[in-house]
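Hi Y.,

Following your request, here is the sequence exactly as I used it, all 599 residues.
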Amino acid sequence: SIRDNLNDDVVAYLGGVPMIAADMISYVKQDVVVFGTIVIAIISAMLFWLFRQWRWVLFPLASTGVTIFLTTGILGFLQQPTTVISSNYISLLTIFCISFAIHLIVRYRELGTKHPDRAHHDLVVETMKDKLAPCVYMALTTMVAFGSLVTSDIMPVMDFGWIMSVGILVSFLMTYVLFAGILLLLPKRGDRARLHDEPGMTKVLSALAVNRTKLVLGLMLISVVIASFGISRLSMDNRFVDYFRDHTEIHKGLEFIDRNLGGTMPMDIILQFPPYEEPDEEEASFFSTGAEDTNSRLYWFTPTKIQYLRDMHAYLESKEAIGKVISLENLEQVAQTYNDGEPLGPVELVTALKAMPERVYHDLIEPYASPESGMMRITLRLHETVPDYTIEGLISDIKNHAVDELGFEADNVQITGMAVLFNGMLQHLFDSQTSTLLFVILATLVMFILLLRSLTLAVVGLIPNVLAAATALGLMGYLGIPLDVMTITIAAIIIGIGVDDAIHYLHRFRKEYAVSHNVRTAVSQSHHSIGNAIYYTSITVIIGFSVLAFSNFIPSVYFGLMTALAMLLALMANLTILPGLLILAYQSKDKKRTQGQQN
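Below is the corresponding structure, written out as tokens. Let me know if you'd prefer a different format.
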């Protein structure tokens, strides 16, 4: 409002942490409304193209809308605010709701095609029974994946974890309730869906898995090596100026201030000196001013301490990444102009402090020094537009200089500020995610064992999705995409998404194998049935979430693209590596059965 009231010939640039925070929230809200509408429109078009009936468009949208409405209502009832991180719950719940719905619809239509004379009610009941187990475990494993975020010490991430867990539970319940409730009220219809036409990509992936099993598994091993190197290149070097597109007002303001006005992101260095102690009688008589509260400032501020600041200033100003530096050294530089350019000695320093009015001391001295605690503060701003430096490396360099060159104890040098806080949060989150990843994998493995009652199938189902998560992270490392507040949870998202497809595939594979007793035949049949559903579900979501690439908020762009990539990687892994591992695990059993029949 201040800017809008300025004269027309004034160009105002806005920046700073409050501006960044406000614009981040503003862009996320805008993305939810604008791109949310576009995603729904694209998904609706895809569903109609696939199923050719409006009921199969309206049902998934209805279950998605009710789920988001109820989840948001629960958050409002609990007075739980959403953050930039947890705002993703709407997008992710859309994925899971659509996935739940499509798998139910596909199974209902498959039963209708196989048993055209069966009653409508019986088809609905059979669908609900057949898909109950995989859908329950799909919900549970996904809740476990996101529930791992609750172990983080960072509150927005913890909130995101339990919000997603609650949302997925609501999604499962609402999809099942609405599917049976709505469908039983509607008449039975014919089937003209494209889902029965096996797409070319599914045929290719099926042929690779069945006929080129060794090639698929060899590529899997190569992917592991490549992904490992990529993960080692991951960084968390975030620059707020890079969060916004070049044409946005916030980017222009941050860039102008950064290049021309001493930097943007604040950082503070606290140097710990011995705190003030009462002087003896001789010193007290020399420094006496008749006011006891001024003794500490006169006795504690010495040329030696100022020299430490002078040396630290010189070092900081030599760093290209550091812009404006402010401390008591700046006042001392001004005072030198009245002392023939010479540093102030003890007498000049005491004289200047005695002559300083209380208001000046309060405004210019107290923010940068505290005799009672022995702390001196240096505040600076970082240049975010300067390339080739990391916050973590800069912090290490400053501490090493203070310890090795100036003689401070390591514990007497503290570095803080917004840049350090944000970098520390990302580092702490990365460490916590790394430590909980094993828990997620083990918990998911247990879920697989309970569902499939087979350790072999459980391991087979888990490997492709862990590899998909590692591949996505490795690709981010190669492309130089840093982990930020949104993409840092991408591993949990990929495992949660991929495991859902694996559960449905393995559940169908067991049925097909029980009929054919041949692993390659079972894989081919699984591709032709559940593989189609997985393919079309994935393609629908990939296209829908790719539109986030047009957002003005770069983390949203990365989130949309990485979510689409996650679906693509999970699709490829579950339709190539998963059946390849199944063939490897079951082919010996087939050979024994064949030999037994020949004997």
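Residues 511 and 522 are 8 Å apart (CA to CA).

Thanks again,
Q.
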